[in-house]
Design goal:
By secondary structure, the chain is α+β, with helices and mostly antiparallel strands. It has 5 helices and 5 strands. Strands 1, 2, 3, 4 and 5 form a 5-stranded antiparallel sheet that branches. The structure holds zinc ion (ZN).
């Protein structure tokens, strides 16, 4: 009887350890993925404009040091072809001639925050108020960036561009 109980406790212990290790590894994986993605997108921008690269690097650095949010760049430099596709998908998207993304002068970002167990994300569908409350919009003003949340006809709070 005692032996069976001990076995069960060992089994539960093993399951907990495996679950915990998986959770830690997934967390590290997400973190590495975000860092690599940000680095890649910023270096694509650097390839077109050193000035834009400097501005966005400082902007992201400020967000991560002055708020409790972290940044994932979901879109940076875009080819004209990609922008044309986006325009086809949604007529409210900018044309290839007008898009600041094609010029390397805009980024779209998502924000995330760690709870003790999981990540809370702030994305395009979140309200302007949610985005303002993070302090990110205030920081963007310091760099004179235009915020997509200030558009009247299009909800695009993930978008920040150099005027
Ligand atoms: Zn954008």
């Amino acid at each position: 009887m005692k032996k069976i109980k001990l076995k069960r406790i060992k089994l539960i212990g093993a399951v907990l350890v495996v679950t915990f290790c998986t959770w830690v590894l997934v967390g590290i994986g997400i973190w590495i993925n975000v860092k690599i993605t940000n680095w890649r997108r910023l270096s694509e921008i650097e390839g077109v404009s050193e000035g834009s690269y400097q501005t966005f690097s400082k902007f992201i650095g400020d967000i991560e040091s002055q708020t409790n949010w972290s940044v994932k760049i979901i879109s940076g430099l875009r080819s004209r072809e990609r922008q044309k596709e986006l325009l086809k998908e949604n007529s409210k998207n900018a044309s290839a001639d007008k898009s600041r993304h094609v010029q390397g002068r805009a980024i779209d970002i998502n924000l995330y925050q760690k709870n003790w167990l999981w990540r809370v994300w702030l994305k395009k569908y979140n309200s302007k108020k949610d985005w303002r409350n993070t302090g990110v919009v205030r920081i963007s003003e310091k760099y004179g960036l235009l915020w997509g949340g200030s558009y009247h006809n299009y909800h695009d709070p993930v978008h920040f561009e150099i005027r």
